[in-house]
Amino acid sequence: MTPTDSTPTTDFIRTLIEEDLRTDKYDGRVRTRFPPEPNGYLHIGHAKSICLNFGVAGQYGGLCSLRFDDTNPAKESAEYVDSIKADVRWLGFDWEDREHYASDYFDPLYAYAVKLIQLGKAYVDSLSADQIKEHRGTLTEPGRESPHRNRSVAESLDLFARMKAGEFEDGAHVLRAKINMASPNLLMRDPILYRIRTVSHHRTGDTWCIYPMYDFTHCLSDSMEGITHSLCTLEFENNRPLYDWVLDALGVYHPQQIEFARLNLTHTLLSKRRLIELVGTHVAGWDDPRMPTLSGLRRRGYTPESIQTFCERIGVAKRDSLVDMALLEHCLREDLNLRAPRVMAVLRPLKVVIEDYPEDQVEELDAVNNPEDPAMGTRKVPFSRVLYIERDDFLENPPKKFFRLAPRREVRLRYAYFVKCVDVVKDEKTGEVVELHCTYDPATRGGDAPDGRKVKATLHWVSADHAVNAEVRVYDHLFTEPNPADEKVCPDWRACLNPKSMETLTDCRLEPSLAGAAPGTLYQFERLGYFCADPVDSSPERPVFNRTVTLRDTWAKIQKAQKKK
Ligand code: ATP
Ligand code: MG
User: Fold this and answer.
1) What is the predicted pLDDT for the residue at 7?
2) What is the C-alpha to C-alpha distance for residues 413 and 403, in angstroms, rounded to an integer?
3) Counting atoms of ligand 1 from 1, which one is nearest the CA of 50?
4) How far is the CA of 514 from the centre of ligand 1 (A)?
5) Which of 49, 53, 87, 310 should be mutated for ligand 1, with most atoms under 8 A from CB?
6) Residue 150 to residue 172: CA distance in whole angstroms
7) d(C-alpha 3, C-alpha 515), whole Å
8) Going by CA atoms, what residue is nearest to atom 18 of ligand 1?
9) pTM strictly above 0.90
10) Is the pLDDT of residue 4 over 50?
11) 142 in a domain, yes or no?
12) What confidence tens digit (pLDDT) does each residue in 405-426 have?
């Protein structure tokens, strides 16, 4: 199922496709593709493109393919190809047998290039890269023609064949389209179509030493695959005339390029070039739970459904915008609220001894797994004389609005009893509170006090003897600034990285039902947030949990504030 099956979303792209279907422009066909370059891992921005391409194909009875735009062997690898396939599948989409590679088209692309030369629409240039740049001109000045521009067709054909045969060094010659050196669009000033790169390709090995450029490859790949609507991001708007020129010059089937705004998200960066730089320096890997990559989000505990919902909600528009991360988190919370069982876990333990509770007694108390879904049932949680509570749920000198535990104060322990703090034990040297002594009221088991007295707080807890020791990694935004891509705010984006984006807590205590939690399993730790057993580092011997997201819904708050205005 695709996310758009059930939701009647509409946008300018869908409107346009519906119009094309009405006028039978492509014989009623809808054919899209998701065309990643395998030079890094996919990020949440790519998810927008994936949901859009597979979404519209699904919605209009069409097909979507996965095409690797692998024409730059120096930066691409099989690792990236594999990760991209795994991520698209995880997100919930299936390209079936429509898995294509631009490198599979190297032969026909070469033939198309030869044809362009024969038509007098391309030529081999022998200027150096610097000279070509210098001849290109600027936005205000026209470019200058290369002295090789009027080379004969025969000479260009000969040189192009010898480029392919490996007779020349990298950079000695290039193939250029013969368009217009005075075009106001710099991309139309005789763009380079092929360059020499003596580099092995991860799929074609050393068969080729010339590789086609994006602008030549992309439109022809679309054409050969019978794509109808070639959806890409706004930065390719200036490339559209070239897309059209190549296809028209060759007189081949002509899909339609349509641009939409790329996703930008607060407190992170969606650029593979920059994410690559973070890997191994500021984060542990592409799948570091702080990364906006799909593998990072997956490891963090994001569900594919929540990402699909997010992509639906942000919609597709023509103008660039910055989407608040709070919306992504909101979509995740909505999903997890229904599916994640609630459990008790103490991240920063403070020991509590219930003085009047029998030494050897253990009670199995009933706890609700998810109040949102009675079908998820209940479980037993052991209660005993020595417990842990959260360190910050106690204050020796509580300020006015602190209602949790304090000396001589009574609170409820979730699913258990009312307890009252009667003594505080401190470290003699440091003065730090190391233990609390409480009494309990047996009449309050699992409910209220029969005499009607109230408490103002309910705390979570874990029985000391039964607790599972664990490590918990608490994550925060990767960048301190909402828009680290804004050079006015972050002249050097690296300086805006959040030094506190990860805190590792190594002495956490979990309720025993979490023993052996399968990697990837999601829970709500009551009062603390959603957490997931780390798919990489967690083991039955040493559970490791990632904080997926807090319980605080800042998006709902933002919405409320906007409504008031
Ligand atoms: P990056 O800028 O991260 O390097 P890219 O555009 O170079 O991304 P590609 O692998 O070429 O990465 O992208 C594959 C497809 O995903 C393209 O069609 C591209 O337009 C789209 N895409 C990339 N980034 C975003 C984004 N932030 N929002 C929406 N679509 C995106
Ligand atoms: Mg790209």
Assistant:
1) 53
2) 13
3) 16
4) 39
5) 49
6) 18
7) 35
8) 232
9) yes
10) no
11) yes
12) 999 999 999 999 999 999 999 9
